[in-house]
Amino acid sequence: VRHFTRGHEFVAPSGDSQLPGWLVEDDNELQRYKREQGYCRTIEDLCPHVPAGTISTCEIVAHPECERFRLYTLRERLIDVEVHNVPPPAAAAPADAERVALTEPLVPQQRIEVEAKSGRQRGIFSSTVLAIEPSQIAISRPARLQEAMALVVGDRVTVSYQGRVSKYVFETAVRSVREGRVDLEPPGTIGIASRRSPRVPLRDSTVRVRRVEHGGEELAGTAMDASIQGVRVVMSTALPQWERVRVTVSLPDGPLDVDGEVVRVERLGTGQIAHGIYFTSLSPDDISRLRRLGG
């Protein structure tokens, strides 16, 4: 997490060009480097897995967490480039080249997620785009399990969908509600979802997941990353989508104990299962702690 606060300032010191300027200029950090932790080029920070007083990479010290952290920061930089990059004119690209727009438009039959941030049904619901019209977007009635999302004209909702380049998000209002169908106002702007609530990688963070709808059965897992929206947890047991749970996550400043629901389930190549758990009961203090987590 400390890496995000550096601002990537790399001013080479006069004594050792392999170390960043901030490390030499900060006496406390330099002492930590000499006595406690070495410098890892992979995450561009001090790392407890690198021997004190040495410079290395995660490949040399065989620590996959550092590589995952590096890939995360690389992805964030690519998104920054994507956001600020101006697409070249059509004539600048070869005729047979595939062009990917900055914002990939919605298309009929596309799966979307509809999020209500207030009210009794706060949470994420699944839906499908039925039709795209100039004056409105028609979607199926958002639902999860056997529960339909209760919407009325004028309600504000957040819609997100996955494209080939990124995940996109926009806010809109309900225009009309019919049987099995909801009409939404066309969005003014569409943004990249990851900029709204960036995920922060967690190192060796344990998680307890209590299945409140199944007698309180408790499972253990590992948190890969977290944000103000939720946490990604890897476990050996698969939970069904939309199951409500109670999650306890080990954060640097102590455990975070909140209610949540499973919104995504993904089987990994290792045989483990990754679960996207959406927080549904964050207090103001919980939100402050998660914001501090990102630096």
UniProtKB/TrEMBL annotation:
Keyword terms of this UniProt record: Cell projection, Cilium, Flagellum
Residue stretches making up the Type III secretion system flagellar brake protein YcgR PilZN domain: 110-181
Molecular function GO terms recorded: cyclic-di-GMP binding
Keyword Signal: no
Pfam families attached to this UniProt entry: PilZ, PilZNR
InterPro entries: PilZ_domain, T3SS_YcgR_PilZN
SUPFAM superfamilies, alphabetized: PilZ domain-like
Domain annotation PilZ: ranges: 195-293
Domain of life of the native organism: Bacteria
Protein name: Flagellar brake protein
Origin organism lineage: Bacteria, Bacillati, Candidatus Sysuimicrobiota, Candidatus Sysuimicrobiia, Candidatus Sysuimicrobiales
